Amino acid sequence: MNLLSVLDRLSDDQFFTKLTSRSEGISDIANFGKKAALASIPLGLSSFMATSAKAATKTTQAAFAPASTLTDALQLALTLEYLEDEYYRTGLATSGLIPGADRVVFGQISKHETAHVAFLKATLNTLGTPPVTKPTFDFTAGGNFQPFTDYQQFMILAQAFEDTGVRAYKGQAGNVASNKGVLQAALQIHSVEARHASQVRRMRGNKGWIELADGGNMPAATNAVYKGEDNVIQAGFNTSTLFGAAAGSASFDEILSGSDAAAIAGLFIA
Q1: Phi/psi-derived region of residue 135, left when phi > 0, alpha when psi is between -120 and 50, beta in every other case
Q2: DSSP letters along 173-235, please?
Q3: Is 80 exceeded by the pLDDT of residue 43?
Q4: Residue 142 phi, psi dihedral angles, 5° rounding
Q5: Where are the alpha helices (DSSP H) in the chain?
Q6: 92-110 pLDDT, tens per residue?
Q7: CA distance 12 to 103
Q8: Whole-model pTM over 0.70
Q9: Which band of pLDDT confidence, cut at 50, 70 and 90, is reported for residue 67?
Q10: Which superkingdom, per the lineage (predicted)?
Q11: Residue 149 pLDDT greater than 60, yes or no
Q12: Is the distance from CB of 261 to CB of 171 less than 8 angstroms?
């Protein structure tokens, strides 16, 4: 199976939503993984506002615990996917918010997030663990953002959610590695989230990748989303020696931990 075939399969909305039993779904993923031989990429998140981090963490801990096991990692991923799914659904349902040309992009992203939610819920049920209940979200983060009345703010949060989501999926690789089928599926979702992030960043006039922890035209409140992205040391090797620090940092995307994920999610949980 060549790379183009792999990408084609991962881009198919029906892959995660086709009508199969839960056990068949896991089996399909495992079988596909054997053929795909995808590279291992790990999940986690961060806090937008340092002043709210402690309160946000307490709020989130009441909803779900930071990931430490396979099912914890899946519950964390599900909560983050719930957040993105509802965010795009609400944006698309808000009259006059998203320009016509951009609705096509966000409509497709929304379908992907819905598919991710369905898959994660089915997987948890297959593993004998009830999926975490969908929280009540406050996308203003306590009045700090107005994404559904200001399209630029909608785009800012979309970029922040996607950029953090990419790092988030990497941070949980170790926690899902015990189940090959789940690990392969998580990597497949991660690659889709990365494409979302690149597209939204470019729609805002930014590069499709992150250099030296620079989010690109983002408010200071989102600094923690990009914290650590300026790292140029990988396994003892200084990646900046060949092409400079910016290229070196952009060559490797850093992870975010489960506790960081809980903190940022808590900012948007009412």
Answers
A1: beta
A2: HHHHTTSHHHHHHHHHHHHHHHHHHHHHHHHTT--SS-BTTB-SS--GGGGGGGTTTT--EET
A3: no
A4: 75, 25
A5: 3-10, 14-17, 22-36, 53-61, 70-93, 100-126, 151-170, 173-176, 180-203, 240-243, 245-250, 258-267
A6: 999 999 999 999 999 999 9
A7: 19
A8: yes
A9: low
A10: Bacteria
A11: yes
A12: yes
Q: What is the dihedral of CA 22, 26, 28, 30, to 10 degrees?
A: -170
For residue 17, the number of C-alpha atoms closer than 13 Å in the C-beta half-sphere is 11
Alpha-carbon gap, residue 53 to 264, rounded angstroms? 8
CA dist list (Å): 45 to 32, 194, 224: 28, 14, 9
Partnered with residue 137 across adjacent β-strands are 269
Residue type, 196: H
Domain 43-199+256-267: assigned CATH number:
1.20.1260.10
Cα radius of gyration (the chain): 18
Two structure tokens written together for 52: 């709210």
